[in-house]
Design brief:
The structure holds 2 protein chains of 2 kinds. By secondary structure, chain A is α+β, with helices and mostly antiparallel strands. Chain A contains 12 helices and 14 strands. Classes of the chains: A alpha+beta, B alpha+beta.
Chain lengths: 276, 160
């Protein structure tokens, strides 16, 4: 591979290196997407920054009522974190479905998000948690809501010199979550259609409820009309009927539009059952 | 031309060697250290034939660059046997007939070893989940699962 490779050991060194680097630039964390593209000869001669030795990109902590995930946190680490299990159960389930043990040991949450596949399994859970991304570059820092980040498959608002420093979302006491997906196989399979639900119960209803779908639109999407039905005390049947109108799947190599549209309410019903 | 030195632990021994940091770790293990037990099946992290341990976790070495091994503890299939005694997982793969062409086996054994290290009493479903990153085109998996169940049983008995 014709690449110039750097392995900075601090965020400061990373940003200094990025400021001086000749584009195109790539950030290497787990390599579970980047090295696959490289194997397919899709990566031009470029400068790579291995970001797995940067402490500021690691760690999971509670800060000012928010759970903060370092961008380079792996799926394996997310699944085993007490904070994530408590405040983001849908995210734990999303990670559970990713690849196999070897992929989960290396793949990062920032990588999963910035690859911007509408079928990424950490993204629907993060939509339901109202997550925000902190982006850092030599030019400074900015925060982007997760719903604003992805614009189309493989296309995001991230500038080439920006790295996802952290992913953060409010720590909601009592939050429950579920993530379900359909794939050709149980493991090592990209999702054909997926749903994430995060909710906080209030008596027989919900004080908080968010639903997000993967692989039924150019990006992950929320289904606000379906959410409103459930938040307003509507029935699961009414919600399932509405959700079919809120998804816009296409036919591609993994599945058909008809199947995805038909499965959206099925997965919603199963996810809501799991929450109870 | 600037050279780069890899410093890490490999199969329990400290290592220090000038290598190409941008080469895949899989290639460095096979070609610089002649540890050819680790195989390339797909080169894309789908088959698990290249599975090694990095700091105790099973990873696909085809998806790691050598620079990422700096300071890490690496274990390959060659590092499982101790003083001419095979690991229980290796022994049971032989006994249960879980090996046909053999190509998936080093990776399969590494994944199974990692599974049992974390979960000494797995159910069949947990074994299937733990080996979910490893593909075999020959055996149909049944004898592989049987081998892992038996290895787990033997190791639990040895602890009593």
């Amino acid at each position: 591979m014709n690449i110039t490779l750097h392995r900075p050991e601090s965020l400061d060194d990373l940003l200094k290196g990025v400021a001086q680097a000749e584009p195109p630039l790539y950030y290497l964390a787990g390599g579970t997407d980047l090295l696959v593209y490289a194997k397919d000869d899709l990566i031009p001669p470029s400068t790579w920054f291995d970001i797995t030795a940067i402490p500021e990109l690691k760690g999971i902590r509670l800060e000012d009522g928010e759970v903060v995930l370092g961008g380079a946190t792996t799926h394996h680490e997310l699944m085993r974190s007490d904070l994530v299990r408590r405040y983001a159960p849908a995210l734990v389930e999303g990670c559970w479905n990713i690849g196999g043990p070897q992929i989960r040991a290396r793949g990062s949450v920032a990588g999963n998000i910035s690859n911007a596949s509408p079928a990424a399994d950490t993204v629907p859970p993060l939509y339901t948690l109202d997550a925000r991304l902190e982006l850092a570059s030599p030019r400074g820092r900015r925060t982007v809501g997760i719903e604003e980040f992805a614009q189309a498959p493989r296309k995001t608002v991230r500038q080439p010199d920006e790295v996802i420093l952290s992913v953060r979302f409010p720590a909601r006491e009592g939050v429950r979550g579920a993530f379900l997906r359909l794939g050709q196989r149980k493991a090592q399979a990209i999702s054909k259609v997926s749903v994430a639900v995060s909710a906080v119960r209030d008596g027989s209803g919900f004080s908080y409820l968010r639903i997000a779908y993967g692989a039924v639109a150019p990006t992950v999407i929320r289904t606000p009309r379906t959410e409103a039905i459930l938040l307003g005390g509507g029935s699961v049947e009414d919600a399932c009927r509405e959700v079919s109108q809120e998804v816009f799947p296409i036919t591609d190599l993994r599945s058909t539009a008809d199947y995805r549209k038909a499965m959206a309410p099925v997965l919603l019903r199963r996810a809501l059952d799991k929450l109870n | 031309m600037k050279t780069w030195t890899l410093e890490c632990t490999l199969n329990g021994k400290p290592l220090r060697k000038v290598v190409d940091p941008a080469a895949r770790l899989l290639d460095t293990l096979r070609e610089e250290f002649f540890l050819t037990g680790t195989k390339e099946g797909c080169g894309k992290g789908e088959c698990g034939a290249c599975t090694i341990f990095v700091d105790g976790l099973p990873v696909d070495s085809c998806l790691m660059l050598t620079i990422q091994a700096q300071g890490r503890q690496l274990v390959t299939i060659e590092g499982l046997a101790r003083e001419n005694r095979l690991d229980a997982v290796q022994e049971m793969f032989i006994q249960e007939g879980g090996v046909q062409c053999g190509f998936c086996i080093p990776g399969m054994i590494m994944a199974a070893r990692a599974l049992l290290d974390e979960n000494p009493d797995p159910t069949l479903e947990e074994i299937q989940y733990g080996l979910g990153g490893n593909l075999c085109r020959c055996t149909g998996y049944q004898k592989i699962f049987q081998a892992v169940l038996r290895a787990a049983q033997i190791e639990r008995e040895q602890l009593v």
